[in-house]
Design brief:
By secondary structure, the chain is an alpha/beta fold. Helices cover about 35% and strands about 20% of the residues. It has 2 domains: about 170 residues, 3-Layer(aba) Sandwich (Rossmann fold), CATH 3.40.50; about 80 residues, no CATH class.
Length: about 260
């Protein structure tokens, strides 16, 4: 699904964030990216999204080099990216409207338009029916995040990229949306890559956890966490063990946020 080979990336007048960096993700996996501020977490997500480009090396998805944003990749940002002048329904429709204008490859007028029939389905599925005609400023944080998720899933993505999407939510809403996201990704066979600062969130969501170091990152420090998302895992001994292991690794590497 995702293959990063010999990646080199740096911002002007800064040390490289990535130096000969290699990383792979299989289709349908959930992967959490963990590490301190400034280590390259969000930059790596933007490289996968095609919003930034390597100085050298390759970023490939399904064996295709990522040279620009990819129509079948969904990106959800920390601030949700909703249009404040549009209703929930209009925001959910936005991605389909853009796709139907530019086509499935992002360049050509489409032969087959994405139907809008599933808009109401996703609005209902995400529990937004009662607020569908309201504007983002009238919504709670959880409702805004549900709107962003509905807008993305309406495009039928195979890859979902999320940049600290739950950090501003209260604990109960955060866990509810984490579980909902995992359930929907499993149901739709979507590969999930999520950036987080929180060890517990990484352990709850990532079947694989990528721990980034203080730059430059030269190797992918991967921690297997196959039980992520399973029923009762958050209260299990294994969950607490992986959290403790990640904490110890971050202390040892001096990469605590």
């Amino acid at each position: 699904m995702i293959s990063i080979q010999s990646l080199v990336f740096q911002y002007a007048n800064h040390l490289p964030l990535f130096q000969d960096f290699n990383w792979t993700i299989s289709r349908g996996e959930t992967c959490a990216i963990l590490g301190p501020s400034g280590c390259g977490k969000t930059t790596l997500l933007y490289l996968l999204a095609g919003l930034k480009h390597p100085i050298s090396g390759e970023v490939k998805i399904n064996d295709e080099p990522i040279l620009r944003p990819r129509p079948h990749s969904g990106l959800i940002l920390q601030d949700y990216g909703l249009l404040p002048w549009s209703t929930v329904r209009e925001n959910v429709e936005l991605g389909i409207n853009v796709r139907n204008l530019y086509g499935p490859d992002g360049k050509h007028t489409p032969r087959n338009f994405l139907p809008k029939d599933n808009i109401e389905g996703w609005i209902n599925r995400l529990g937004l029916s009662e607020v569908a005609d309201k504007f983002p400023g009238q919504l709670s944080g959880g409702q805004r995040q549900r709107t962003a998720i509905a807008r993305t899933l309406a495009l039928e993505p195979d890859l979902l990229l999320m940049d600290e999407p739950f950090s501003s939510l209260d604990a109960i809403t955060r866990e509810d949306l984490q579980n909902l996201t995992l359930s929907l990704c499993d149901e739709q066979n979507i590969t999930l890559v999520i950036v987080t600062h929180a060890i517990e969130e990484a352990a709850a969501l990532g079947q694989k956890i990528l721990l980034l170091d203080t730059p430059p990152n030269r190797s992918a420090n991967i921690f297997d966490n196959p039980n992520a998302g399973s029923s009762g895992y958050r209260t299990s001994v294994k969950f607490h063990a992986i959290c403790e292991r990640l904490w110890a690794e971050m202390q040892k590497r001096n990469v605590l946020a």
